[in-house]
C-alpha cells in the first residue's frame, strides 16, 4: 500500500481524478467498517446486529502522500457509503483537533452533512459538490451521508500537526444525530425534538 512521504518534501502537484475521485499520487487508504464505530450509534442492538450481519464498510479515507506532521498541509478524500443503523444515517467517527486549528472540506459527489459541535453549540452544514465547509478551531466535526442511494465524497485539507482526538466525541457526543426522515434527513438534537432539514 502507498505510504506518506518523508519530510522534507519537494514541491509537487497532486491530481484529483474526477472520475475515480482519487488523489494521484496516492498515499495510505484507511477503511472504516461498522465495527470500527462502536459506541457511536444510538441503537446499540441494531449496530451489533448489522456488525454480525456482514460488518459493512461505512467509509474510506484516501490520503495524498503529504504526511500528518506539524507544518505540513495534508489532504484526503473521504467517501461515505449510503446506509443507516435503525434510521441513523452513516457517518464518520468524528473528532476534535487537540491543537485548535481550522480545516476545510470541499464537496465532490453526493449529498453530505457536516455536523459541528463545540461542546455547547451545534451547527449543521449541507455539503454538496463544489461547496466548501469551513471548520473553525475548537469545533468537533463529523460527516454524514444524507443521500439515500449514492456515496458522499469530499476533500479535506487540514494542518498536519492538529492531531485527532476521538475520545472527545465519546465523552461529549455531538449534541445531535442525523436520521433518515420521510421528508429528507432530520437533525435530532438531544434532548430536543426533530428538526426537518432542507
Ligand atoms: C481530518 C479530516 C478528515 C477525517 C475523515 C474521517 O482532520 O477531518 O480527513 O479524518 O473524514 O473522519 P474521522 O472522524 O474518522 O477521522
Ligand atoms: Zn478534522
UniProtKB/TrEMBL annotation:
InterPro entries listed in its UniProt record: G6P_isomerase_prok, RmlC-like_jellyroll, RmlC_Cupin_sf
Q: Which UniProt keywords apply?
A: Gluconeogenesis, Glycolysis, Isomerase
Residues in domain Glucose-6-phosphate isomerase prokaryote? 32-180
**Name of the protein described by the UniProt record:** glucose-6-phosphate isomerase
Q: Biological process GO annotation list?
A: gluconeogenesis; glycolytic process
Q: Which domain of life is it from?
A: Bacteria
Tell me its family. Answer: Belongs to the archaeal-type GPI family.
Reaction equation(s) it catalyzes: alpha-D-glucose 6-phosphate = beta-D-fructose 6-phosphate
Q: A Gene Ontology molecular-function term?
A: glucose-6-phosphate isomerase activity
* Any one GO cellular component localisation term in the record: cytoplasm
Q: Which organism is it from?
A: Agromyces protaetiae
Amino acid at each position: 500500500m502507498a505510504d506518506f512521504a518523508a519530510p522534507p518534501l519537494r514541491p509537487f502537484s497532486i491530481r484529483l481524478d474526477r472520475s475515480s475521485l482519487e488523489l494521484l499520487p496516492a498515499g495510505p487508504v484507511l477503511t472504516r467498517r461498522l465495527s470500527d464505530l462502536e459506541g457511536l450509534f444510538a441503537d446499540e442492538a441494531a449496530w451489533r446486529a448489522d456488525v454480525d450481519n456482514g460488518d459493512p464498510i461505512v467509509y474510506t479515507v484516501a490520503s495524498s502522500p503529504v504526511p500528518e506532521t506539524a507544518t505540513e498541509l495534508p489532504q484526503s478524500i473521504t467517501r461515505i457509503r449510503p446506509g443507516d443503523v435503525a434510521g441513523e444515517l452513516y457517518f464518520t467517527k468524528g473528532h476534535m483537533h487537540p491543537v485548535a486549528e481550522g480545516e476545510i472540506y470541499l464537496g465532490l459527489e453526493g449529498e453530505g452533512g457536516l455536523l459541528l459541535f463545540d461542546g455547547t453549540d451545534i451547527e449543521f452544514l449541507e455539503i454538496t459538490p463544489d461547496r466548501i465547509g469551513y471548520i473553525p478551531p475548537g469545533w468537533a466535526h463529523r460527516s454524514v451521508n444524507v443521500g439515500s442511494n449514492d456515496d458522499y465524497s469530499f476533500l479535506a485539507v487540514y494542518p498536519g500537526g492538529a492531531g485527532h482526538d476521538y475520545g472527545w466525541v465519546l465523552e461529549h457526543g455531538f449534541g445531535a444525530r442525523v436520521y433518515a426522515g420521510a421528508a429528507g434527513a432530520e437533525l435530532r438534537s438531544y434532548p430536543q425534538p426533530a428538526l426537518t432539514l432542507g
